[in-house]
Amino acid sequence: MITAQRLHALVRKEFLQILRDPSAIAIAFVLPVFLLFLFGYGVSLDAHHVPVAVVVEQPTQETNEFVAGLSQSTYFQIHPFTQLTAARAALMRHEVDGVLWLRSDFTRALLQQRTAPFGILVNGVDANTARLLEGYLQGVWQTWLQQRATRSGQILHLPATLENRIWFNPALRSRNYLVPGLIAVIMTLIGALLTALVVAREWERGTMEALMATPVSLLELLLGKLIPYFLLGMGGMALSVCMALWLFAVPLEGSLGLLILASALFLLVALGMGLLISTVARNQFVAGQIAIIVTFLPAFILSGFIFDIGSMPEPIQFMTHIVAARYFVALLQTLFLAGNVPEVILTNAAALLLMALIFFGLTWRQSRKRLD
Amino acid sequence: MLARIWALIIKEFLALLKDKASRVVLIGPPFIQLLVFGYAATFDLNQIPYAVYNEDAGAVGRTLVAYFEGSPTFHQTVFISHESQIAPSIDNQKVLLVLHVAPHFTQNILQHQSGQIQVLIDGRNSNTATIALNDVSAIINQFNQDWMAQYGWAAPPALPEIRAWYNPNLISRWFIVPGIVALLTLVVTLLVTGLSVAREREMGTLDQLLVSPLRPLEILLGKALPGFIIGLLEAGLISTLVVVWFHVPFTGSLLALILGIILFLWAAIGLGLMISSLANTQQQGLLGVFLFLVPAVILSGFSTPIANMPEPVQWLTFLNPMRYFLVIVRGVFLEGAGLALLWPQYWPLALLAVASMSTAHWRFRTHMG
Fold first, then answer.
1. CATH architecture of B48-150
2. Could you tell me how far CA A249 lies from the centroid of its own chain?
3. Optimal mutation site among A166, A199, A252, interface B, most CBs of chain B within 10 A
4. B244 touches chain A (CB under 8 A)
5. What angle, rounded to 10 degrees, do the helices at B172-193 and B282-298 form?
6. How far is Cα B300 from Cα B107, in angstroms, rounded to an integer?
7. What are the residue boundaries of the structural domains of chain B, listed by start?
8. pLDDT tens track of chain A, all 372 residues?
9. Which of A279, A369, B162, B231 is deepest in the core (most CB within 10 A)?
């Protein structure tokens, strides 16, 4: 069914076509570098210099000590105020994200051994950032409690004290998990873009019928499309991994061999999806529209790259199983940060293999049906 | 002139909708996507899988663990009785965190000393880990306050009173779902406009149009208006669903939202037509759409704050229409914003619309001359 000579000729034809319209080369090599560079720097959940209004209605030694905790942290950028109304107006105009309010009776309450209340006000629209800000402001408060107790020669006793051990990413550097996730999202696009239009173009221009009239078998035809783009895609993947390791300094705990294997599997799925899209659509316009809809947003939102899959409602969690990027994100995050964890790697790799088979099977069926 | 533009609009609608697949692509996905993404895209954790490794045999340890068992945020999935079980549970992602109650926890607390709780957490996804740690410390704080009040421990010298404006329960869905209005409107407009000129050019029908009595501006409007009509309908329907289905409060001015949608649509259409008119083939057009769409979404502030980006990337976002529109929708939905407060978002959108439409127009003219 497959002869080396015919396959070689088909691959050569495809490569010639790629060279003639260099946009495929741009897609495979320039696009991942450009996007990873942009997003690797641009996408971050680590806030720093968050503008916070600090309202001190009556400055004293005590309030200075309290505020000192904020100014030492690079997390905050302090905007001092003396009145709450002005600080609230600043919050409304988005000039600050939060307000720390020490009332005029703060010091008096402390000296009288009463519990002194103080206010924390945040803009809750961006709930995630707001919650982190609340957490940091409470951290300042707890540090202050400790220091104050130490200064007065006491030991602060809280019933339960908490100690954290963060595995795999002790500094909680968000880049370490975002960059592997970004690679998965970007390669989803690359894989689909590379193949989404090529078969559709052959159908649209009628060259597909011409190819089918030749002795070339369907399998050879598909392989002839697949092999060149697979090689291009692996090149783009290699560039992305090099950038992750050396530019963004993401540690690679697992083995390189497994990483290559996982990437190859994922690329097969992504290319297979592109082939299927262009076989079903048969014209470039619709193939392009479908590629935009089924690749980018699902890979971005449903892959667990940024939104935690475990927190989605059950039916949505179930749906994420048809998003190939989901498995690749899990593989990459584990291989980069945790190491060769057999269970995670085997299940996700098996899922990718299954998806690749399904996509190629469907493409095969769709192409054959139209031969009659 | 109006009659000619009208004829062109009809032609464009026919070209868009005559293909069944294309019809499905334009009408079905926005609503499915709104539902799926609206539920999927949240930073709030629930059912965090965790395990307890309790080395303390006493009652206080059990009381503390009961706080976690009673919380809807946490869900115990693995039972650990020996230290060696901790690593495999975390490695294999069976649990996100292990709560370790140290020996003598009960004894220490009964003697008015501090008892120790250790949290071992999977940091692979650092954001999830940060949020989960926050949730853990909130529960521990609650336990401490209850215990101190109940057993007469000295109260801490100061206590925070925390308020969150606009979104008092800090539901991240309220933040994300209005953003989906922007996201889907952008995708739909680019789908309609991004490939349309490139297709005509590749098929040679653009030349036919250009030699007809139609002026380039008329062709441009004929290409732009279908995108505008489809975009306006979908943006309106999606916004309605955000309120009716997802119960996100709508506190601002409807007029401010409508003006925002119109300006955003023109900016997005202009950019789509510009990309499309610069491309020689559909493949280039599709590449251009992706090259614009993907950064526009990821660097818009939709999921990660613009303030966290390095300065040069922040400057780039000034060219991104979605950046401004996100401020508008979130402001109108949650912050009760009106026209006056949103003025700084309107004029850059208008500027982007004019600049991109002019570029597209210029490409049409030079192609003809």
1. 3-Layer(aba) Sandwich (3.40)
2. 16
3. A166
4. no
5. 160
6. 53
7. 26-41+171-368, 48-150
8. 678 888 888 888 888 888 887 777 888 888 899 999 988 888 888 878 889 999 998 888 888 888 888 888 888 889 999 999 999 999 888 899 999 999 888 888 888 888 888 889 999 888 888 888 888 888 888 888 888 888 877 777 788 888 888 888 888 788 888 899 999 999 998 888 888 777 787 877 888 778 877 888 888 888 888 899 999 999 999 999 999 999 999 999 999 999 999 999 999 999 999 889 888 887 887 888 888 888 888 999 999 888 888 888 989 999 999 999 999 999 999 999 988 988 899 999 999 999 999 999 998 888 765 554
9. B231
Backbone angles phi, psi at A37, to 5 degrees: -60, -50
Query: Is the ipTM, as predicted for this complex, more than 0.90?
Result: no
Could you read off the pLDDT of B117-172 as tens digits, one per residue? 999 999 888 888 888 998 898 899 899 989 988 888 877 777 888 888 888 888 88
Please give the Cα distance from B183 to B356 (Å, whole number): 19
Name every chain A residue with its beta carbon within 8 A of the beta carbon of B39: 312-313, 316
Asked if residue A109 and residue A36 are part of one domain, the reply reads: no
Residue pair A196/A278 in contact by the 8 Å Cβ criterion: yes
SS3 state at B305: coil
- Residue A85 lies inside a defined structural domain of this protein: yes
Q: Which residue of A has its CA nearest to B305?
A: A45
Question: Domains in chain A: how many in total?
Answer: 2
CATH number, domain of A87, equals: 3.40.1710.10
